[in-house]
Amino acid sequence: MGKNLNQSELEQKARELLQERGVSLEEIAELVYYLQSNYHENLSMDDCLYNVDRVLEKREVQNAILTGIQLDKLAEKKLLEEPLQTAIEIDESLYGVDEIIAFSIVNVYGSIGFTNYGYIDKQKPGVLKRLNDKSSGECHTFLDDIVGAIAAAASSRLAHSSADDKLLDD
Ligand code: MG
Description:
The protein is an all-alpha fold. The protein has one domain: YutG-like (Orthogonal Bundle). It has nine helices and no strands. It has helices spanning 7-20, 25-36, 45-55, 59-76, 84-89, 97-106, 112-123, 127-131, 143-162. Helix 1 crosses helix 4 (59-76), helix 2 (25-36) packs across helix 3 and helix 7 packs across helix 9. The protein starts with 6 loop residues before the first helix and ends in an 8-residue tail after the last helix. The chain binds magnesium ion (MG). The site of magnesium ion (MG) has 5 residues, from helix 9.
């Protein structure tokens, strides 16, 4: 067994990276609201933001953010080897590893996260639309899936918490 990294440092770095890449927690909370407002009476943005914050406390989520954003940044600087450089830079449709990394986030609150993730990935509301705009010159091949996955996981958490489920470990 290797050494374990300090989780509060991981969490702080993950939060900094999201901010550095131009994604606010409020925007992710808006995606949660988009997914869940029909199912919860009187859902507030504070509830959505609270659940996004809880998702960001999970080590799997922090690791996915660190890994995905690092690859986006390296691709933006053209520092990856071919053919991976091109695959990530052009967001090649059969590459698919960006989605696999996102699944490790979607998974943390059970399988209903997959439905939310699939739906929001198709609709691309709010911040997801902006991250998908290829004309910006920025590379968000991993980030768009990560952001959608955090929103999907937070939606699952919200659903489980309103049902008072024991699945929640925090
Ligand atoms: Mg992607």
